[in-house]
C-alpha cells in the first residue's frame, strides 16, 4: 500500500475532530461520576439496596432461617388488626405537636441570643449542650428526674403544687407528653443554631431602613425578620416533622413503649417487632407505613410553608 | 523507578506479616477449631474462661479454642445472622426460651447422643428445662433462683410478724406496709405477666385454647389491682420487662420492704446500702400452686446447626468440661449463681452457713436448697406468642392501674388469643 492510498483511506479531518471531541466529552462526563462512584457504591450497598430488599421483604413471610415466601399484603392486613400499631401511629402524629413548639421556642431563643450582650456565648453554648449530649445520657438523666422520688416531683412538692408524687413515666396519660418534653429539650438548641445563622444573614440595612420608616420592633420582626428566615423555617419544620415521626431513642431508653403501650410510636413499633419479636416482615411493613406518612408530611410542609420573600 | 527505604520497610513488614500468618496457619492446620460464645460474661469472667481455655488446650493439644463474648442484647441477632451465613460457633450460651425458639426452627442440634450417660451429672430440672419434644438441646451451665429479701425494720414498723409465704399474703402485707409506713411493699415482675401466671400454677393455654380468664386468673389480677390502688406496689417501672434495676434501687433506699431477687443481688445491697443490709433478712419467695420456685433461669451451651463431625465431638467434650462439677462450682462462687451439676449443688459452700453469715450467705443457702424445685418458666408452643403476649400484657396493665375492668379485659384478650390460635 502506497502512502498515497493510505492517506486516501484515512477518515476526513472533521471526522477525526469529531471523534476526538466525543472522547473528550466522554472523559469530561465520566470524571464527575468517577468522583461520585465511591459514595454511590456505599449508598447503593448500605442505603438503596437495603431499602429495595426491605421493601420486598415487607411483602413476604420471612424469619431469617428460611427463604422469604411472597404473601402479598398479608403483613399490612396484619398491621391493621393490631391496636398497638394504631396507638403507635396516633402517638407519632401526636408527637407532631412538638413541631410548632420547637420552632417557636427555637426562634425566640435565637432572637434572644442574637444580641451582643456580655456572656451571650455562654448561653448559646448552654442551649446547644443538650444537642451534643448522648441520647442515652439524656434518657437516663430525665428518667431519674421523672422518677417518683426525682427532682421534678421534689420541686413541685416543695412548691406545694402537688401532694403526692406524679408518675411522669408510669402514668399512661402523661408518659408520652413527658417523653415529648425531653425531645423538645434535646432539639431546641439545634434549631436555635440554624435560626441564629439565618438571623445573622439578614442584611442590616433592611432593619435600619425600617427603623427610619418608623416601624415598631414588632413590625420589624413580623415584616422583615420572619419573611427573611422563611426558608430556614421551612427547612427546620421539615426536619423537625420528620424527626418527630421517627422518634425512637427516647422511647427506647425511657419507657420502652409502656405503660399500657401508651408511648409506642411508629418507629418504635417497627423496632419492637423487628428486634425484640424478630418479626422482620411486620417491622418492615410498619416502617413502610411510617415512610409514607413522612413523605406526605414533608410534601404538606413544602406545600404550605413556601417562602414568599427572598 | 526507585524504591525508597520507606517502601522497602513496608514491603518487608508485609512479608513478615504474611510469613507469620502462614506459619501460624500451618501450625493450626490439623487442629480442631472450636469457637464458643458466652453471653455478657466479659470482663468479670475473663480470667476464669482464659484459665479454663488454657487448661483444656494443654490437655487437648488437638483442639484450638476461640472464646467470643457477646452482649446479651445483640446475641440473638448475631447468632441468627451467623447461622444463616453458615458461620455459627460450635457452642453458644443461651437461655431456655431462646433455645426453644431456635430448636423449633431447626437451628440447634439435639445433643442427646453427645451427652450420653453424662446427663446424669446434671440436675433433673436442668435436663427437663432443655428437653424439647423429647430431645435434649444443650449442656446445662448455671441457674438462678429468687429469694425474698425483706427489711425487718419496715416489717416491724408495719406490724408484720410473719413473713408472707403466698402471693396473696405478700400483697396484703404490701398494703399494710403502705398504710402504716408510707413506703411501698414490693415491685412484682408485672412486665412478665405470663411468668406471674405460671408461677401461680395458672396456665395460659390448655388444649389449644386460651384459658386465662378463669376465676382464679381474675382473682389474682384483682389482688394485684387492689394492692396497686392501695399504693402497695412501687410504680416506677412496674410494668417494664425488666423492673429489677428500679426494684433494687428502691430497696437500697428503703422505699420498698420486700425484694424478690437472686441472692447475688444482696451483694449490691451489702456494698451500696450497709444500713439497709444490716436490717435485711431473707425468706423463700412465695411458692404458687405448682411448687416451682420463682426466678429459675437456666443458661446452657447449645450447639447450632452446622456443627458436624469432629468439631461436634470436640465441642461436646469441651462443653462437658465447662459444665463439670469443679468448673461449675468455681463459676457459681465467682458469679453468685447456682450450679446445675449435681455434686456442685451439694457442695458445702452452699450448705454450711458460717456463724457470722449475713443476708447474702443465708440467701445462697436458701437458694441451693430450692434448686430441686427450680424450673425456667416460659410459654412454649404458642405460635405468634410475642404478639399475643403483648395483648395480654396491655390488658393486665390496664386492669391493674384501674383503666379497665379485670374480667372484661381478660375476656377480650382470651377472645383475641383464641381467634389467632384457632387454625
Characterization of the model:
The complex is a heterodimer of chains A (310) and B (423). In chain A, α5 (98-113) crosses α12 and α6 (120-132) packs across α9 (175-200). Chain A is 73% helix and 1% strand. With 310 residues, chain A is mainly alpha-helical. In chain A, a hairpin with a 7-residue loop joins β1 and β2. Chain A starts with a helix and ends in a 6-residue tail after the last helix. Chain A folds into 2 domains: 3-40; 85-304, MetI-like fold (Orthogonal Bundle), CATH 1.10.3720. In chain A, strands 1-2 form a two-stranded antiparallel ribbon. Chain B is an alpha+beta fold. Chain B has 2 domains: 32-141 and 296-359, 3-Layer(aba) Sandwich (D-Maltodextrin-Binding Protein, domain 2); 147-293 and 382-421, D-Maltodextrin-Binding Protein, domain 2. In chain B, 50% of the residues lie in helices and 13% in strands. Chain B contains 20 helices and 15 strands. In chain B, the strands form 5 sheets. In chain B, strands 1, 2, 3, 4, 7 and 14 form a 6-stranded mixed beta sheet that branches. In chain B, strands 12-9-13 form a 3-stranded antiparallel beta sheet. In chain B, α19 (385-400) runs antiparallel to α20 (406-421). At the A-B interface, loops of A face α3 and α19 of B.
Entry keywords:
heterodimer, A: 310 residues, mainly alpha, MetI-like fold, two-stranded antiparallel ribbon, B: 423 residues, alpha+beta, D-Maltodextrin-Binding Protein, domain 2, 2 domains, 6-stranded mixed beta sheet, 15 strands, globular
Chain pair with largest interface: A-B, 23 and 29 residues
Helix percent band of chain B: 40-55%
Total domain count of chain A? 2
CATH class of the largest domain in chain B: Alpha Beta
* Cα radius of gyration of chain B in angstroms: 25 Å
Fraction of residues in helix of chain A: over 70%
CATH hierarchy, class of the largest domain in chain A:
Mainly Alpha
Shape of chain A: flat
Number of strands of chain A: 2
Which strands sit side by side, in order, in the main sheet of chain A? 1-2
CATH superfamily of the largest domain in chain B: Periplasmic binding protein-like II
The CATH topology of the largest domain in chain A turns out to be MetI-like fold
| Largest β sheet strand count, sense and barrel closure of chain B | 6 strands, mixed
Q: Quick one: overall form of chain B?
A: globular
Overall mean pLDDT score of chain A? 89
Strand content of chain A: under 5%
Amino acid at each position: 500500500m502506497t502512502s498515497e492510498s493510505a492517506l486516501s483511506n484515512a477518515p476526513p479531518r472533521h471526522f477525526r475532530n469529531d471523534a476526538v471531541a466525543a472522547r473528550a466529552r466522554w472523559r469530561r462526563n465520566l470524571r464527575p461520576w468517577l468522583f461520585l462512584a465511591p459514595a454511590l457504591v456505599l449508598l447503593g450497598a448500605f442505603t438503596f439496596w437495603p431499602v429495595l430488599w426491605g421493601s420486598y421483604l415487607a411483602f413476604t413471610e420471612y424469619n431469617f432461617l428460611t427463604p422469604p415466601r411472597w404473601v402479598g399484603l398479608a403483613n399490612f392486613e396484619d398491621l391493621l388488626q393490631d391496636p398497638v400499631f394504631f396507638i403507635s401511629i396516633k402517638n407519632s402524629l401526636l408527637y407532631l405537636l412538638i413541631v410548632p413548639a420547637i420552632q417557636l421556642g427555637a426562634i425566640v431563643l435565637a432572637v434572644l441570643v442574637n444580641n451582643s450582650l456580655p456572656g451571650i456565648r455562654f448561653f448559646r453554648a448552654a442551649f446547644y449542650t443538650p444537642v451534643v449530649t448522648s441520647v442515652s445520657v439524656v434518657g437516663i438523666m430525665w428518667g431519674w428526674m421523672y422518677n417518683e422520688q426525682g427532682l421534678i416531683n421534689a420541686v413541685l412538692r416543695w412548691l406545694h403544687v402537688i401532694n403526692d408524687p406524679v408518675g411522669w413515666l408510669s402514668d399512661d396519660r402523661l408518659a408520652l407528653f413527658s417523653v415529648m418534653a425531653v425531645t423538645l429539650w434535646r432539639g431546641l438548641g439545634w434549631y436555635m443554631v440554624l435560626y441564629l445563622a439565618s438571623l445573622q444573614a439578614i442584611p442590616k440595612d433592611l432593619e435600619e431602613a425600617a427603623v427610619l420608616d418608623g416601624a415598631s420592633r414588632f413590625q420589624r420582626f413580623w415584616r422583615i425578620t420572619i419573611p427573611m428566615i422563611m426558608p430556614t423555617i421551612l427547612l427546620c419544620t421539615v426536619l423537625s416533622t420528620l424527626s418527630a415521626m421517627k422518634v425512637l431513642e427516647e422511647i427506647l431508653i425511657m419507657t420502652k413503649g409502656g405503660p399500657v403501650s401508651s408511648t409506642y410510636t411508629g418507629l418504635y413499633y417497627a423496632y419492637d417487632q423487628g428486634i425484640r419479636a424478630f418479626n422482620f416482615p411486620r417491622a418492615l411493613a410498619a416502617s413502610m407505613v411510617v415512610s409514607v406518612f413522612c413523605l406526605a408530611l414533608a410534601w404538606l410542609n413544602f406545600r404550605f410553608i413556601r417562602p414568599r420573600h427572598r | 523507578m526507585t524504591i525508597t527505604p520507606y517502601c522497602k520497610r513496608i514491603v518487608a513488614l508485609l512479608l513478615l506479616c504474611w510469613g507469620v500468618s502462614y506459619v501460624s496457619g500451618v501450625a493450626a492446620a490439623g487442629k480442631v477449631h472450636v469457637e464458643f460464645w458466652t453471653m455478657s460474661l466479659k470482663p468479670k469472667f475473663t480470667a476464669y474462661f482464659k484459665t479454663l481455655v488454657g487448661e483444656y488446650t494443654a490437655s487437648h493439644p488437638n483442639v484450638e479454642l476461640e472464646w467470643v463474648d457477646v452482649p446479651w442484647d445483640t446475641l440473638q441477632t448475631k447468632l441468627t445472622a451467623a447461622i444463616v451465613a453458615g458461620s455459627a460457633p460450635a457452642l453458644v450460651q443461651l437461655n431456655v426460651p431462646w433455645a426453644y425458639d431456635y430448636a423449633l426452627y431447626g437451628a440447634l442440634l439435639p445433643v442427646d447422643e453427645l451427652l450420653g450417660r453424662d446427663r446424669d451429672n446434671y440436675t433433673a430440672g436442668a435436663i427437663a428445662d432443655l428437653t424439647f419434644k423429647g430431645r435434649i438441646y444443650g449442656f446445662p451451665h448455671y441457674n438462678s433462683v429468687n429469694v425474698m429479701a425483706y427489711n425487718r425494720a419496715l416489717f416491724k414498723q408495719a406490724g408484720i410478724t410473719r413473713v408472707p409465704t403466698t402471693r396473696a399474703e405478700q400483697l396484703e402485707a404490701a398494703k399494710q406496709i403502705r398504710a402504716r409506713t408510707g413506703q411501698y411493699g414490693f415491685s412484682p415482675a408485672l412486665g412478665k405477666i405470663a411468668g406471674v401466671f405460671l408461677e401461680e400454677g395458672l396456665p395460659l393455654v390448655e388444649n389449644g385454647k386460651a384459658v386465662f380468664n378463669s376465676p382464679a386468673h381474675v382473682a389474682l389480677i384483682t389482688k394485684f389491682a387492689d394492692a396497686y390502688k392501695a399504693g402497695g406496689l412501687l410504680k416506677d417501672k412496674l410494668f417494664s420487662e425488666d423492673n429489677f434495676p428500679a426494684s433494687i434501687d428502691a430497696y437500697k433506699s428503703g422505699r420498698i420492704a420486700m425484694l424478690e431477687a437472686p441472692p447475688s443481688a444482696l451483694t449490691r445491697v451489702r456494698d451500696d446500702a450497709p444500713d439497709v443490709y444490716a436490717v435485711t433478712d431473707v425468706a423463700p419467695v412465695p411458692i404458687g400452686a405448682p411448687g416451682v420456685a420463682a426466678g429459675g433461669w437456666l443458661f446452657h451451651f447449645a450447639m447450632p446447626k452446622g456443627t458436624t463431625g469432629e468439631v461436634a465431638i470436640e465441642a461436646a467434650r469441651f462443653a462437658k468440661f465447662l459444665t463439670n462439677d469443679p468448673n461449675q462450682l468455681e463459676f457459681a462462687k465467682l458469679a453468685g449463681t447456682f450450679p446445675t451439676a449435681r455434686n456442685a449443688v451439694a457442695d458445702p459452700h452452699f450448705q454450711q452457713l458460717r456463724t457470722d453469715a449475713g443476708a447474702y450467705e443465708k440467701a445462697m443457702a436458701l437458694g441451693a436448697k430450692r434448686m430441686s424445685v427450680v424450673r425456667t418458666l416460659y410459654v412454649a408452643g404458642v405460635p405468634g406468642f410475642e404478639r399475643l403476649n403483648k395483648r395480654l400484657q396491655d390488658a393486665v396493665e390496664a386492669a391493674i392501674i384501674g383503666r379497665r375492668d379485670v374480667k372484661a379485659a381478660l375476656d377480650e384478650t382470651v377472645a383475641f388469643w383464641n381467634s389467632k390460635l384457632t387454625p
